[in-house]
Amino acid sequence: MKTKAVRLYGVNDLRLEEVELPEIKDDEILARIVSDSVCMSTYKAAQQGSGHKRVPNDIAENPVMVGHEFCGEVVEVGAKWADKFKPGQKFSIQPAINYNGSLDAPGYSFKYIGGASQYVVIPSCVMEMDCLLDYSNEAFFYGSVAEPMSCIIGTFHAMYHTTQGSYVHKMGIVEGGNMAILAGVGPMGIGAIDYAIHCDRKPGLLVVTDIDSARLERAASIYTVEEAAKNGVKLVYVNTATMENAEEYIMSLTDGKGYDDVMVFAPVRPVVEMGDRLLGKDGCLNFFAGPSNTAFSAEFNFYNVHYSSTHVVGTSGGNTDDMIEALDMMGKGLLNTASMITHIGGLNCVVDTVLNLPKIPGGKKLIYTNIDFPLTAIADLQQLADKCDICKGLYEICSRHNMLWSEEAEKFLLANAKAI
User: Fold this and answer.
1) What is the DSSP letter of 344?
2) Which residues contact 37 (CB under 8 A, 6 or more apart)?
3) Are 153 and 171 in contact (CB under 8 A)?
4) Which pLDDT tens digit goes with each residue over 151-162?
5) Integer Cα distance of 300 and 312 in angstroms
6) Which of 157, 187, 247, 252 could form a disulfide with 364 if both were Cys (CB 3.0 to 4.6 A apart)?
7) Residue 229 parent element (H or E)
8) Which residues are within 8 A (CB) of 281 and not within 5 positions of it... i.e. 6 or more apart?
9) Residue 275: which residues within 8 A CB-CB, separation 6 or more?
10) β-bridge pairing 2-10 and 311-314
11) What is the value of pTM for the model shown?
C-alpha cells in the first residue's frame, strides 16, 4: 500500500513523499499513525545525516522515516503476534528498543517505520523487545508525549547517591532533598517539573531556572507554587537573567548546604558550570541536554569530586519501564503532559518544522499525520480565529482548558481539518 511519509536522505535533506510499503511478513505489524511529536533529536539527526549514531550510512539510497514520538492504531497483524495484538488496538511505542545491543531505533534507522508517516510496518524486533505498548487513552497525543516523558522519568531514576563508608549506590533523587532544574521551562524541563511534583519520590525544595520570562510565566501558571505545596514541594522559579546574584540567591534557599540533585536542560557551558557549583555534599548533576557539538565540554570541580563526593551522570532516553510508568501516571491523571505542547500541525509542515526547530519558540510541536494543517501556536489561535474557522473552534476549546491542548481539541481538529 502507499503512504505519505517524511524521509531522511542526507544532511538537511528531508522529503515529504509517497512511499510504497511492502506487504507485512508473518512477524510484522501494519499500523496507522495518528500523532507524532517533534523531538530535537530528530533535528540533530537531520543535521548530522549518516554521521548520527542511529542513522545508517546508506540513507541516500535507502532513506529512513523520521519521527519517534508516535501513537496510533494497529491495522493488520502478522501470524506471530496475532495472540497479542489485534486490528483496531491503540498503541504507543518505546523507540529505544536496544535490540541485540544495537542503537537502531524507529524514526532513525528503518525504511518503513517512523512517526512522520500515515502508515508504517513495525518490524519484529520492536515486539520482541516488548516496545510496542498497549495504549488505552482516548486522546492519541498523550501517547506521543509519553516517549519524551519516559526520558524525563529515566533521568530521575538515573540519579544516584552514595553511602559514606560504603560502595553501595542509592538510586533516584533524594526524597525530601534539594533539587534544581536549570534552563528548566522548555518542553522537557516543564515535564520534569510536572514529574517532580507528582511522582512518588519528591524533593522538598525544587528550584527552576531559565532566562525566558514568558516561558517562566507560562510554567508558573500551569505548575503553580500552590499546587506544588499541596504535594509537599516548595517550588521556586528564578529568572537568572534579571535577578542580581541569582546563583547566590539559589544557594541561599538551601541555607548554604547546596543541592542534592541538579538537572541541566540546556547544553550551555555556563549553565553546566553553575550546576556544578550548586552541588552540595554527595550532590548528583544530571546533564540531560544532548549537545550537537561532539567536543562540548565544561569545567567540573574535581576538588569537590574528591572531598565532597559530587558526581555527574548523563541520560539519553528512557527505557520501557519508564514509558510504562509515564502511561500509567497519565492514565491516572497524575501528569498533565499537555503542558509540553505549544504547537500543532499536519504532516505537510514536518520538513520545515524539523529543519527550523531551534528557531521556533515554545515547547513540543505536535503533528497529526493524516491532515494538512499549518504549524500553529496554541497561543496564536485567538488572533487567527477571524481568518480560520478551525482556529476559532480550537481557541474556544483551548480556552476551556487553560490554553492547553486536550482530547476535545484533538477530536475537533481531526474531524475538521483537510486530509493530506
Assistant:
1) E
2) 69, 70, 115, 141, 144, 145, 147, 148, 340, 341, 364, 365, 366, 367
3) no
4) 999 999 999 999
5) 9
6) 187
7) helix 225-230
8) 257, 258, 308, 309, 310
9) 180, 182, 262, 263, 264, 285
10) unpaired
11) 0.89
